[in-house]
Design brief:
The structure is a homodimer of 334-residue chains. The first copy, chain A, has helices at residues 40-57, 95-103, 112-123, 184-187, 189-202, 219-227, 231-255, 271-283, 302-314, 324-333, and strands at 4-10, 14-21, 26-33, 64-70, 107-110, 132-137, 141-147, 150-151, 259-263, 294-297. The first copy, chain A, is α/β, with parallel strands linked by helices. The radius of gyration of chain A is 21 Å and the shape is globular. The two termini of chain A are 18 Å apart. In chain A, 51% of the residues are buried.
């Protein structure tokens, strides 16, 4: 069996890719700018050129078993990106097919949060866990749900959008999805910044945050202020943690996971976020589940996480039936 | 292979059991009163005696492959009932082990809503569906979640308690679980009756329901009044359907089921409930899921549903390792 997979994480800004072995060691990695290429064809040519450089430099030609890709809104079943606000290309885009044809290697794709969950299960904090929910607290809130050792894709490949659970049914914040009250409008990095603006505008207490232009406040600013003892900043984290914990208690009645695994910038806020989150989760938990769910932080190194997650999916990649002849030809070319 | 399974549905009032063949035909069935036996031993003796009567009468001795049991709070993994407010016996109760020893036949158990989902998947509206959510609208609201063709048990066997999703975070109704705002306090038969009392007390319009003692109003009374054109009664169903639909839109972001299957007394209210439910579900749906989820009604005959659901689990029953010698002896005795 071929010893490596290629993991590709397509983000709105950067595309990171790396060669990974079966134990999760990143042999080599590099990145290109996603936004630089307005035509997918140009992007793919550049990605191929740069990836082949590290593949050749590491004597890995013909040793790549599969390619795994994590990308916004990528669909595991269809291999398509149907729409994605953060990517510069026309959609629908048959991502898996095009990449597979280009590299001559089977490709499997899924969305970024699912890729993170697979990475965590294969190499990280979720090793050995059969039932867990990965929650990514970044610009938005993403999730990857694993039940009985399998990632939940749903009937259409789009399951696990827990950032869009409605946590405020009335007068909730407007979400990018067009609805109001979604979890991610409160518990993402941007949600924390929105809470900061709301608190600063509706209250009068002094705060270190008042030294900053209100529209520019980031979750990092709130974190820094809270660490420095700022009362309003600490309350912003309490507010955020409470909503997240309440929502996690709801997630529990669905699939009764053994653990929640938190990932992403906001998850690094430590006890500022985790303490109120744990308290709210346990307080709102259905009695039968009280004290049962662990809350773990991702164990994947930040720099490697996205590539590792995507690469783990590479082991699942199967040749596309329609693309088989092209794939064979491309393999020969490589 | 032995051609039959024995399905046992243990309800708070009655225990219904039946011999079922592989195509889902109920060969024979009968019932005993659950509440009559305060000691489980006495109950089990009576259940055994009565079940053996129909087994012998149908020449099915030594032809029962397994026994499937649906019972409140029954745990698939442990075979135990840890606690159950509606059953007269001391808990924790090692139900699977005791029944298996008594009959000399492997036993698998799960809770009643899960049993209904398995029955629907094996014999009913969910045949051929790999991803669906069964919602039972009875005295309470139960659920059985099927993902990728497998029932979701969660890490501890208690997954799928969607009746305890919080639909009203503040000032919600007190639930039997000790918390407030659970879905089942609004969208069960008792929830409908509570809504009726609330509406009648806070409003002044005339209503057919005002002819009834307010504490005795049932969901059936509300249904009858609505069918007769009563405005308040119709609004009660609109209120109930709206909350259910909003909640189903939330369930969708979790597992993206192909269909919801509704079961139980309240599901038979037809368009009175289904119309506002569908409207609220679609209105609150994350755009990517709009128009995708079917809403189906259970296809199992009311009288057979519980037994069929439980019996389908019988095909999954495996001999209990610890009980093997006793089982063998008991089989010989049979």
């Amino acid at each position: 069996m071929k010893p490596y997979v290629l993991g590709i994480d397509i983000g709105g800004t950067n595309t990171v890719f790396g060669i990974v072995d079966a134990r999760g060691v990143v042999i080599a990695s590099n990145s290109i700018k996603t936004q630089k290429y307005h035509k997918f064809e140009d992007y793919l040519n550049e990605l191929y050129t740069e990836a082949m450089k590290i593949i050749e430099a590491n004597d890995a030609v013909d040793k790549i078993y599969g390619i795994g890709i994590g990308a916004p809104n990528a669909n595991y079943y269809t291999g398509m990106i149907d729409s994605a606000a953060n990517l510069p290309w026309e959609t629908p885009l048959p991502l898996a097919e095009l990449v597979s044809k280009k590299f001559g290697i089977p490709v499997a794709i899924t969305n970024d949060a699912n890729a993170a969950a697979i990475g965590e299960m294969t190499y990280g904090a979720a090793r050995g866990l059969k039932d867990f929910i990965m929650i990514t607290l970044g610009t938005g809130v993403g999730s990857g749900i694993v039940i009985n050792g399998q990632l939940v894709y749903g009937h259409d490949g789009y399951a696990g959008e827990l950032g869009h659970l409605i946590v405020k049914r009335n007068n909730g914040r407007l979400c990018g999805c067009g609805r109001t009250g979604c979890l991610e409008t409160y518990c993402s990095a941007t949600g924390v910044a929105r809470t900061a603006r709301e608190f600063l505008e509706t209250r009068t207490e002094p705060s270190l945050l008042r030294n900053l232009p209100i529209e520019d406040i980031t979750s990092k600013d709130v974190y820094d202020a809270a660490i420095n003892g700022d009362k309003i900043a600490k309350e912003i984290f309490e507010y955020t943690g409470k909503i997240l914990g309440e929502s996690m208690a709801d997630m529990m009645v669905f699939s009764s996971p053994e653990a929640f695994i938190l990932f992403g910038g906001l998850a690094k806020s430590g006890e500022l976020l985790l303490k109120p989150m744990r308290e709210a989760m346990e307080k709102n938990m259905l009695p039968i589940f009280k004290g049962k769910a662990k809350v773990l932080l991702s164990e994947l190194k930040e720099a490697d996480a996205a590539v590792l997650g995507a690469s783990a999916l590479g082991w699942e990649a199967k040749p596309m039936p329609a693309a088989a002849p092209a794939t064979a030809a491309a393999t020969a070319a490589v």
